Structures are given as C-alpha cells and as structure tokens.
Amino acid sequence: MISIIVPVYNAASYLPACIDSLLAQTVQDIEVLLVDDLSTDDSLSIARAYASRDTRIRVIPQSHKGQSVARNTGFRQSKGEFVAFVDADDRIESDWCEQHLAAIGGVDYVQSGYRRITPSAQVISTHSPLHQYRFTSPCMRLYRRDAIKHLAFTEGFIYEDVLFSADLWLSGAKTRVIRYAGYLYTLNPLSTTASSHPEDQQRLFKALREKGRQASLKGKGIILYTMIRLKLHFIRS
Predict the structure, then answer these.
(1) 70 and 152 share a domain?
(2) Is 82 helix (H, G, I), strand (E, B) or coil?
(3) pTM for the complete prediction?
(4) Which one of 76, 143, 161, 175 has the fewest CB atoms closer than 10 angstroms to its CB?
(5) How deeply is 207 buried, as exposed, middle or buried, from its count of CB atoms within 10 A (0-12, 13-18, 19+)?
(6) Same domain, yes or no, for 226 and 128?
(7) CA-CA distance, 97 to 106, in Å (whole number)?
(8) Is residue 188 within 8 Å of 137, Cβ to Cβ?
(9) What is the model's pLDDT at position 200?
(10) Each residue of 75-96: pLDDT tens digit?
(11) Positive/negative CA dihedral, 76, 78, 80, 86
C-alpha cells in the first residue's frame, strides 16, 4: 500500500534507527526502498543485512549521483498506491503511516509536522504546519502516487526539495493539513543542509522567480511567500 523511499549516503550511524522505525509501523503493508548513493561507510552492508531479514525491504545501489537522483530512482521502482520520503538520518513514529492514511480521504497528499531531535533522540522542538505551504521538505507528507507521478526532483541541485514543493503546490494538488508531528528530524552536523551554499541559494531563487513568472497570479503569490521565508531562514542561519 505504501512505498517509503530512503536515499542513503554515509548514514551508518543513523540508518538502523531509521529502518527500525519504518519496520515498526502499525501499517504493515509497506515496502521500504533503500537507495544507496555509493556510500563509503557501512551503510550498504547495513541496508543489505536488514533486507536479508525482511522481504519488505529492497536495496537499490547507484553510483554517486546525489539525493535527487536517489529519490527519483526510488519513486520509479516503487509499487505502492501511496508514497512517502524519509531521510536516512531521520525516523518516524510507529503510527506515522496510520495517521496519514486515516486523513488522506479524497485529497492528493497529507501534510503534517515534525520534531527536531538530537542524535540520541532527545526532542528539541516541535513544529506543526499552519497551512500546506509551511514546510518545503517532501518528507512530512504522504502522497498518492498519481498526484506526483508527473513531478521529479531537480538533479544536481542541493535545494531540490524546495523546487519539488513549489511544483507540487503549483500543480493544484489537493491537500489536508493535520496537527501531527510524528516525523523525527535529526540534527545531523554532517548533513548537506547543515552548511551554507550561497551559489546554490542563488540558483534556487532564480529558479523560483522563473516558476513565478510562468505561473498564474495565485502561483506567483505562493512562490513569493516561499522566497521570503527562505531568505529569512538563510539570513538566520
């Protein structure tokens, strides 16, 4: 029923907790696609060890092409009616799939919130969505496959999640927002977004401006809102 796509790159310290949280879901009709991006640590061997013990797990090795390619590859090879994305250094509560399935009804995707945690799982803060545009990460959502089959993550680009979310919003997909924060986002100092990337930030704003130019008046408003929020985020960081 649900395909959970996990891009993996040098996440050996976090991957077991991530996979354990996926296998512990109260909804058991899932498949877990671990797309390893040519890790140089023990990530691939960990993934294969889990796959040997649980047939719901599939390991997909790829040459080092980045997170966007890993997500796109995972989606193409997935089979579920519904799709979710989870990062390898994060985890989800055991009722995450259940909560989102119960809420999806006739909409295209469900948007929820998250909790920031330390690597030892200590909760730092809780963030709930006020509306569908609150978060740009693709991870705190459950999608109908048909709603995103025409979308893709921009390859070779750090902020691919922002562009994916902008395309999702501009597509007119129907959503439901729930006050639930079952996604556990780990503060990983080695993650890609933990450091500043000024050139990619400029590329991101250029791409968003172009999307706004091509979109309707409503679409421009969405893009403008997203750009303002991102600028404030980059300034604070």
Answers:
(1) yes
(2) strand
(3) 0.89
(4) 76
(5) middle
(6) no
(7) 16
(8) no
(9) 81
(10) 999 999 999 999 999 999 999 9
(11) negative
Cα separation, 132 vs 94, in Å, equals 23
Domain count of the fold of the chain = 2
> pLDDT of 95-139, one tens digit each?
999 999 999 999 999 999 999 999 888 999 999 998 888 888 999
Q: How far apart are CA 211 and CA 184, in angstroms?
A: 31
- Whose tokens are 């960081």? That residue is 237
Q: What is the DSSP letter of 11?
A: -
Q: Is residue 128 domain-shared with residue 232, that is, in the same domain?
A: no
Does 121 lie in the same domain as 50?
Answer: yes
Q: How far apart are CA 17 and CA 70, in angstroms?
A: 20
CATH number of the domain to which 17 belongs: 3.90.550.10
- Looking at the structure, tell me whether residues 106 and 122 fall in a common domain: yes
Burial class (CB in 10 A: 0-12, 13-18, 19+), 81: exposed
* Cβ atoms of residues 79 and 31 within 8 Å: yes
**85 and 69 together in one domain:** yes
Answer whether residue 211 shows pLDDT above 90: no
Structure tokens at 136: 């740009």
CA-nearest of 104, 114, 136 to 225 is 136
DSSP, collapsed to helix, strand or coil, labels residue 58 as strand
CA distance 32 to 83: 10
Residue 159 dihedral angles phi and psi, to the nearest 5°: -95, 45
Q: Do 202 and 174 share a structural domain?
A: no
Range of the domain at 98: 2-190
Q: Would you place residue 191 in the very low, low, confident or very high pLDDT band (cuts 50, 70, 90)?
A: low
Tokens of 43: 């990530």
- The pLDDT value recorded for residue 224 is 72
